[in-house]
Amino acid sequence: MELIVQKYGGTSVKDTARIREVALRIAATRKKGAQVVAVVSAMAGETDRLLKLARDFSERPSERDLDAVLSSGEQVTSGLLAIALNAIGCPAVSAQGHQIRILTDSAFNNARIQDINTKKMSEFLNEGKVVVVAGFQGMDKEGNITTLGRGGSDLSAIALAHALKAKVCEIYTDVDGVFTADPRICPNARQLKYIFYEEMLEMASQGAKVLQTRSVEMAAKYHVPVMVLNSYNNNPGTLVCKEDPTMEEPVVSGIASNAQEAKVTVRHVPDKPGVASKIFERIAKEELVVDMIVQNSSREGFTDMTFTVPKTDLPRAISAMEQLAKEIQAGSVDSDSNIAKVSVIGVGMRTHTGVASKMFSTFAKEGINIQLISTSEIKISCVIDSKYMELAVRALHDAFGLEHEPQK
Q1: Which end of the chain, N or C, is surrounded by fewer C-beta atoms within 10 Å?
Q2: pLDDT at residue 288 in the model
Q3: What is the pTM of this model?
Q4: Which of 174, 190, 223 lies at the terminal end of a domain, its last residue?
């Protein structure tokens, strides 16, 4: 009997009516002869509510205790879904991370999975039960509850699919699949039938919110087939898979955008060995995640260093850099939170030229100034003024003809 792992996000289980619909979908999968492990997120908005409760007491609560609070959202959903399944005659049992022993390290709020014991789940499955697992959580070797970071239920589901050797991991959300651009920004965005792991990883890291970045990394590492589907309908979704020579490789597969970053520039930095190291050692000490880094050419022994961070981390980044600027005798620290990053992504860029030229000329035609540029083998990202983000996405989507299926 084949095994399928299904993950349901917060909007899919946002209330009791939606949980009943999810139960019916799972029961229908069981009737087709498959074993099912269902991984659930907290109900929509619940994690934010719990986080707010914790911060009513402290702006920086203990990370260990915060994990105990935040993990309760998934615990509630898993219990409710198991109750709903049993109520319609589909045998089910809920299971928390510590009950099935999803072992993680002790990096509270952003733990990494180290091992999964499948014995208990296999026993439940062999008894003919659906196992409803609380996503987003695990336990460290000391028995503490840990959480896997925002979107961690995706990671839970893909890790379980690998551990249980599932046929596929189905990720249910409130969109039909992965699109060539955000449909809310670009009305003629086209749903992709499939996307390769590497492209999906770039899409996720550059702002697409369909899958958590770490979950894509794990799927790619273990070649777990992932199907992104809509829990509100039965439309065909998007398959996230490894590259296949028989598949078409469009030059550009999609446009990603992200308006949640900010830019920090340290002016008049002494241009000598070890200074850049000091800057980024301080950034690492503050546990700031840096995306793009640009150093200007040296003038009279000084340079400017620019980098981007999540907008929520901007106050900490500014404070850290202002302190460091005094220590290294640099100049002022400037910042800009009104920026956006727009990226073109596609594995076909490895073997085709002209993508950068077309991207830059498209921006020029629209009067969009480029502030920073970053590239990889299958991605070109540009930082621009945030007010031009939607225009940039639509213009690039048209320029690369992404509304059309790639020609065979």
Answers
A1: C
A2: 87
A3: 0.86
A4: 174
